Amino acid sequence: MIKAIIIGGSGYTGAELLRLLALHPDVTVVAVTSRQYSGVGVTEVYPALAGYYNGLKYLDPAEIESMECDVLFSALPHGVSQASVLPFVESGVKVVDLSADFRLHDAAVYEKWYCEHTAPGLLDKAVYGLPELHREAIKETSLVANPGCFPTGALLALSPIMKNGLCNAGMPVVIDSKSGVTGAGRKAAIETSFVTINEGFKAYKIGEHRHTPEMAQELSALAGADLNVTFTPHLLPVSRGILTTAYVWLNETVTPSALHGLYKEMYEGEPFVRVMAPGHFPDISQVRGSNYCDIGLYIDEQQQKVVVVSAIDNLVKGASGAAVQNMNLLFGLDETTSLTAAPLSI
Amino acid sequence: MIKAIIIGGSGYTGAELLRLLALHPDVTVVAVTSRQYSGVGVTEVYPALAGYYNGLKYLDPAEIESMECDVLFSALPHGVSQASVLPFVESGVKVVDLSADFRLHDAAVYEKWYCEHTAPGLLDKAVYGLPELHREAIKETSLVANPGCFPTGALLALSPIMKNGLCNAGMPVVIDSKSGVTGAGRKAAIETSFVTINEGFKAYKIGEHRHTPEMAQELSALAGADLNVTFTPHLLPVSRGILTTAYVWLNETVTPSALHGLYKEMYEGEPFVRVMAPGHFPDISQVRGSNYCDIGLYIDEQQQKVVVVSAIDNLVKGASGAAVQNMNLLFGLDETTSLTAAPLSI
Amino acid sequence: MIKAIIIGGSGYTGAELLRLLALHPDVTVVAVTSRQYSGVGVTEVYPALAGYYNGLKYLDPAEIESMECDVLFSALPHGVSQASVLPFVESGVKVVDLSADFRLHDAAVYEKWYCEHTAPGLLDKAVYGLPELHREAIKETSLVANPGCFPTGALLALSPIMKNGLCNAGMPVVIDSKSGVTGAGRKAAIETSFVTINEGFKAYKIGEHRHTPEMAQELSALAGADLNVTFTPHLLPVSRGILTTAYVWLNETVTPSALHGLYKEMYEGEPFVRVMAPGHFPDISQVRGSNYCDIGLYIDEQQQKVVVVSAIDNLVKGASGAAVQNMNLLFGLDETTSLTAAPLSI
Amino acid sequence: MIKAIIIGGSGYTGAELLRLLALHPDVTVVAVTSRQYSGVGVTEVYPALAGYYNGLKYLDPAEIESMECDVLFSALPHGVSQASVLPFVESGVKVVDLSADFRLHDAAVYEKWYCEHTAPGLLDKAVYGLPELHREAIKETSLVANPGCFPTGALLALSPIMKNGLCNAGMPVVIDSKSGVTGAGRKAAIETSFVTINEGFKAYKIGEHRHTPEMAQELSALAGADLNVTFTPHLLPVSRGILTTAYVWLNETVTPSALHGLYKEMYEGEPFVRVMAPGHFPDISQVRGSNYCDIGLYIDEQQQKVVVVSAIDNLVKGASGAAVQNMNLLFGLDETTSLTAAPLSI
Fold it and tell me: Is there a single domain that holds both residue B157 and residue B59?
């Protein structure tokens, strides 16, 4: 059995890791840390998990220092995670970091958007954990930077176009995303209270969301060009899900069926990407609770304009499901282990 | 113009008072207090009110001490409100207290359920502000104890039965109520966060909710008997509304049409109680944003059992709308002033 | 592999059966019927199931007449189901009927509440499929009457009291239940449209809901007395979940810990009933997507009054999950097969 | 009193007209038609309106043929409306048509996107009813083409840029809009059922929504150039509200404060447009139930890129509120009459 520790595990991504790992045949969760809930039973905070983790209590971070494990999941916030995972990486533990700390290759870009980086030496070691783009590298590393939720939806939506050199870099790439509230994390705040969110909808952090450089890094690398990415996140009155509507202009005329073919080609064999039939577009509900990314395509041939819509569950493919998928790869397991349940779409 | 001050006015009931008073032709809000938002513009906290209260800033409570006004609305929490309204009452200001501090006639009962009462001398002066039961007394007093949200729905549902001496006091009176989340007040808490509430539903404070003695006081007074009231509140994943399902057994056989007649009789001429046609029951959506209480009746003649369902908007008829209605009565205005807008049912 | 056919499988319970059976290691769904969607791919109607049932199309009922199978799930409406399952039962196929057609032992009671019964000869053969009450009989039969969603929540909430002879039959048993909208079935109707339901809440079918005699049959049998059951269903603005708040009076004084002990005792070893710690009550969200029934207890010793709250997912424990559980029992499989995933509580 | 008739009045826009006109001091609704509900009381279909329209029954369209009125509101679908309003226009009745039938000046464009136009002679007479753009023309006409809900939000968001000649016509204008479900109209359909919509979100009619030419007509006219408008609507799981996120590139460098100044200038004195302070963006909840359009601006000076976010209530400013505003203008009344209630933002 693979011994797993989750640090910063009382939030939604931590709870989702516990849900997904509950029936993983090869993994046992030996510890979960939380400063806030230290000493409290996991099932007291999450009664839904009663029967799965009955004995497990949240530990103070100090309590796991000398604990042995095979894999560490960090669900700590960015800035905090880097220092916490360092000793584990150094002692040979495989690490999946769900924070932003190791996603950007360039420490200077990281420091511009986030804060000081105290473990820049690990950046070379870290692999950006989107298996659909970097599967082989993930298998070889021991530090996976789990992608951000918005980048996951945007990258899977746009990669086939970028990879095939079809993007007109002189035109904008507009990524208009809409996320459920779990994306804001678990915290007591008027801004995410039921009454504020319910029957509401808004854009936020316009022009300044930290997932922008992450998208730019990966899309530009694929396209081999500096892309002008405009990203606007919005907050949906739902718990889970991200729908991304991406607008991109092509540098040549492509027919709908040719474009569809490129998507099918890139994602053939991918267990968690479902390209929908032409004329069909996803609803976030159809991936709820699952690790799928569903994609629909619209092309205006004459204007060489493409609208791509992707749907993911931000807590699964956008966070904890991807983390388990990456862990499966790190340990040579079937990549889909414990991730095959059908979505709870209704 | 009647000069109004609202103390403790940054929560939902305060905001709702501001909404309802925005177009009141006879009232001008001269001050609103809030410790938390002292110095902040009302429209910064509530952008919806832009254009209505552009100059108004929340004041620290100390800033209104020497301010003149004709009416004071207290939206402070119980325990805090009693001391705050005292100087106003003593200086002749008319007061509508939305807290629980003056609802229970008996200080001992108050102290059992709430906390110490520091102004018990005002209890005799205070009138329980349900106009459908105590309209004339409200007109004569200068201290109105605005009813609790759950008692409002329950009392309007059951009064005709109690008043007509039909309740079988040997059987239980079961009041099963379901409230929207604004009933929990405006606060940053995981318990009332969107993700916790959304797609959820639960009972809470079973057997120990503080509105129980308030219901018992008024129902027993009407019935002329000590009633065995069982009250269970539930939390609905909606912003506004209380549906009360009340079960009561009668001490004699009453036909459906006779019972319906008693309800029509008691509420004839009441501007804010709408008794529905036989076989029809209310949905909370049909009173949203309005001061109505809609009522539907079911009777099982053979079992002498009645199920009454009432719907109110907890922020309007259950709090701020009732407060404005009471204020209108206190000043001899048309009782319905500024309360006549049709519900936003869709 | 057990070959399964689902008839009437395009509604929510059919879709939920497909979701739950998707990864069942011992079952393969060989056919699903639907008059409305005959010829249409299952994944066209339910895109969430893409990848699980790619080849499967809904068949016209006539197309399965000569098809071989080991188990038949009927998700047809009551009245229609009885005739449709008859030939299968007669030919030795094991049948789990999710309709109401075989739940009531007495054909006369069925005909009073529903319609004519055309297969009364099967009533003796049918076992009421609540494993917590009738596990051994289920294993022996070949026709399981899958319980109604409301009865499931109510019976699990009240059985320990009834079974231990504690119910005061002279007092009412009040069952106030609140269900998500999937309980109303999948149909195009203004009554269940988003705009009607959203931000709304209401009681319906007061005094006349068809699940009442089903509750009375089972509760009275357990209690060994004719109980006066009052049942009121309500419609919650959520997709899934039933919360039942049951009020019952005892015929003797029982301490909270003694009562809790009786619940623990009855449900010890039950894989899908979780009795919560004293003072804790369930939220429907904590069982979402799972086969659990979570139960919380309140007792007013002095008044000999008990309030029991139970939560289930109406589509799982209240319908399709129970059907799979029953099927597992019919075939001697581990009762929990394909039902062990943790709830999607967030 | 102005006598008003509403045709096609049983849907959401009809109900919203009734809500808004309920307290209009100068208008009395003399008739409402509905084929579906002919003979049924308005308050039976909409119990929320009990007490406002107690005597009013829906009439069959034939019943109003000889009825006198001063203003006709048509809430009929496009294609049907044109023929129905024709006799009223010809007999001198002032008409506000909420359908799309008279919005496009060019019958050929109409016929391309909709269907045959049977009253093209009225197109010259009709005025596009966005008072912020065409107030004086509205006052002079007797046929107002009430704007579409999406165009209203988009046009108010972008007009100041277009009018001031700042739009770079060589770059795209991307309009990404998100609408509540009432925008889909009142109908029985699985697509708009609660279970389908709840916790879901999707794009629809990508590249083919009929509001596109309407936006292009008005924006191009303002800009004096043919604009490349890309419009994508999405369906929000809320009842009311449209948030529009518009992306536009400028043909010169403009500072944030200069841009903000242009918006303040254009909308100064407009009773229903609220330009938010720099750095603030609207939430649809802050305009709910009201006739406001709230607007927030983001500018990336270096990239000459502007993101404008606007929020309206699709049933009020996006439909029935605008219709009442237009009617007020047609009759020389205060434009804001019966539209001044504060939003129900909570």
Answer: no
Residue A7 banded pLDDT, cuts 50, 70, 90: very high
Instruction: Name every chain D residue with its beta carbon within 8 A of the beta carbon of A199.
Output: 238-241, 284-285, 288
Q: B307–C232: do the CB atoms touch at under 8 Å?
A: yes
Q: What is the structure's pLDDT at C152?
A: 98
C84 Cβ contact partners less than 8 Å away, ≥ 6 residues apart: C7, C8, C61, C74, C76
* Inter-residue contact A84 to A74 (CB < 8 Å): yes
Q: For the whole model, what pTM was predicted?
A: 0.98
Work out how many domains chain B is built from and give that number: 2
Q: What is the ipTM metric for this complex? A: 0.97
| Chain B residues close to C239, C-beta within 8 Å | 199
Confidence of residue A134 (pLDDT cuts 50, 70, 90): very high
Mean pLDDT, residues D22-50 taken together: 98
Picking from B186, B190, B238, the nearest residue to A188 by CB comes out as: B190
In a domain, C213, yes or no: yes
Q: Which domain holds residue D193?
A: 150-314
Average pLDDT value for chain B: 97
Q: Does residue D228 surpass a pLDDT of 90?
A: no
Do D231 and D267 lie in one domain? The reply is yes
C157 in the same domain as C109 = no
- Most D CBs within 10 A among C195, C196, C284, C315, hence the mutation to make, goes to C195
Query: For the CA atoms of chain D, what is the radius of gyration?
Result: 20
CATH number (domain holding residue D215): 3.30.360.10
- Residue C112: both structure tokens together: 């009073």
Question: CB contact, 8 Å: C243 with chain B?
Answer: yes
Mean pLDDT, rounded, of chain D = 97
Domain co-membership, A296 together with A285: yes
The encoded tokens of residue A10 equal 């009382």
Average pLDDT, chain C: 97
- Residue B319 has what DSSP assignment? I
- CB < 8 Å to A315, chain C: 346
pLDDT confidence of residue A257: 97
- CATH of residue A96: 3.40.50.720
What is the model's pLDDT at position A66? 85
For range A82-93, the mean pLDDT? 96
- Closest-CA residue of A relative to C241 is A346
SS (H, E, C) chain A: CEEEEEECCCCHHHHHHHHHHCCCCCEEEEEEECCCCCCCEHHHHCHHHCCCCCCCEEECHHHHCCCCCCEEEECCCCCCHHHHHHHHHHCCCEEEECCCCCCCCCHHHHHHHCCCCCCHHHCCCCEECCHHHHHHHHHHCCEEECCCHHHHHHHHHHHHHHHCCCECCCCCEEEEEEECHHHHCCCCCHHHEHHHHCCCCEECCCCCCCHHHHHHHHHHHHHCCCCCEEEEEEECCCCCCEEEEEEEEECCCCCHHHHHHHHHHHHCCCCCEEECCCCCCCEHHHHCCCCCEEEEEEEECCCCEEEEEEEECCCHHHHHHHHHHHHHHHCCCCCCCCCCCCCCCC
Calculate mean pLDDT across residues C172-177. 98
The Cα–Cα gap between B203 and C259 comes to 19
CB pairs A-C closer than 8 Å: 86
Minimum CA–CA partner of B309 in chain C = C203
Q: Produce one character per residue of D12-29: b if its CB has 16 or more CB atoms within 10 Å, e if not.
A: bbbbbbbbbbbebeebeb
C299 and C264 share one domain: yes
pLDDT of residue B272: 98
Q: What percent of chain B has pLDDT over 70?
A: 100
CA of D207: how far to CAs of A19, A192, B104, D151, D174, in Å? Answer: 39, 33, 63, 15, 11
Residue A293 catalytic?
no
Percent of chain B exceeding pLDDT 90 equals: 99
